[in-house]
Amino acid sequence: MKITYLAKLGELTLKGSNIKSFEQQLVRNARDFLKHIPVDVILRAGRMYIEVEEEYCSKVEFCLNHLIGITGWAKTKICEKNIEAITKTVTELGLLAKENGAKTFKVDARRSDKSFPLDSYAIMRESASGLFDDGSMKVDLHNPDVVISVEVREKCFVYTNSQIGCRGLPVGTSGKGLLLLSGGLDSPVAGYRMLRRGMKVECVYFHSYPYTSEEAQKKVEDLAKALSTYGLQTTLNIISFTDVQMLIKEKAPDSWSTIALRMCMMTASNMLAKHINCQCLITGESLGQVASQTLENMAVTESMAEVPLLRPCVGLDKEEIVQTAYFINTYETSILPYEDCCVLFSPKHPVLRASIEEAKEIYNQINPDELIKKAFEERVVKHFYAHESL
């Protein structure tokens, strides 16, 4: 039996003459996500419809829960475009909700087809009669147990249990960025926030084996995989930074080691961004959260970037970041006790107010460019795809 899902478009509906390109990207993303499933994806008048055999419903619902660019979705029933059929379908869904414990209901109607003889208010009033008149359920317009939605369009769609979507702009409409992905809470959230702005995101992870464990790398791979379910695909570039960190430990003042490391990461990230045509760098920095994220120290980091450096979490506190990490299912992975190289090599008394001039003098004294270039050239690349999670 064929099932139809209705998805409501989000922010992209506010676009002007270029709206078609945003709509087309959203449809491409849905089809790419469901590429190994026989589905029909159609976009029409501010709604996207996915038609699929019932056996694939769970996979379609997983896709819709992760598809950026829609505000919500629902599994619908399609009925004939007359008030008798609408009332019958509303009654069926209401009684089903009653079996699951609902005692009160509300009908919410939208009439996009203006040739339909009843307006939205009349549709709500008439279609509610089947449940209300015989006392099956009570009406509650303010806090109902179940909302039964009716949309009269080219067909008539009736549904309950509307789900909230990710919102944002379809991935692929806002260029490509390179995310510096660590094993912590912040950087996956930063990547997700840029995905919601329509940006494709690739990742780079700096590994310092044996000082950072294989479990730490596996943790980051799992985070990249989680991001791929929102970004359709994620490429993870793993750069071994052991030799670079040993050089920093040998030549840099201890209090400057974290800043020196971040400067070296920026240098390697510049190389990678240029190689894979990324237009910006993305970090999970939040102002004042740790010593390396004072305004002065962030200015030092940014001074090394050769493309724009975006910090989507810069104004968020930890609780806001944690809430998003829960939502995108990265929290449990991020808190696993496998530290990244920044944490393991952090000094007891780091510099809090670094100057760009002094930082660059220390960087030049370390002279890490050859080791960074070697590490970049020996990087390992792994790919993760959303459809693999279905």
What can you see in these coordinates?
- This protein is an alpha/beta fold and about 400 residues long.
- It contains 15 helices and 15 strands.
- The chain has helices at about 20-35, 55-65, 85-100, 120-125, 130, 185-195, 215-230, 240-250, 255-275, 295-305, 320-325, 330-335, 340-345, 355-365, 370-375; strands at about 1-10, 40-45, 45-55, 70-80, 105-110, 140, 145-150, 155-160, 165, 175-180, 200-205, 235-240, 280, 310, 380-385.
- The strands form 2 sheets. Strands 1, 2, 3, 4, 5, 6, 7, 8 and 9 form a 9-stranded mixed sheet that branches. A 6-stranded mixed sheet has the order 14-13-10-11-12-15, sandwiched between helices.
- α9 packs across α10.
- The protein starts with a strand and ends in a 5-residue tail after the last strand.
- The model has no long low-confidence stretch (mean pLDDT about 95).
- Strand % is 15-25%
Shape: elongated
Count every helix, treating DSSP H or I runs of 4 or more residues as helices: 15
Q: Which spans have pLDDT < 50 for at least 5 consecutive residues?
A: none
The level of helicity is 40-55%
Helix-and-strand structural type: alpha/beta
Mean pLDDT: 94
Instruction: Give the SSE order as H and E letters.
Output: EHEEHEHEHHEEEEEHEHEHHEHEHHHHHE
C-alpha termini separation: 21 Å
Quick one: biggest sheet? 9 strands, mixed
Number of strands: 15
Q: What radius of gyration results from the CA coordinates?
A: 26 Å
Entry keywords:
390 residues; alpha/beta; 6-stranded mixed β-sheet; 9-stranded mixed β-sheet; 15 helices
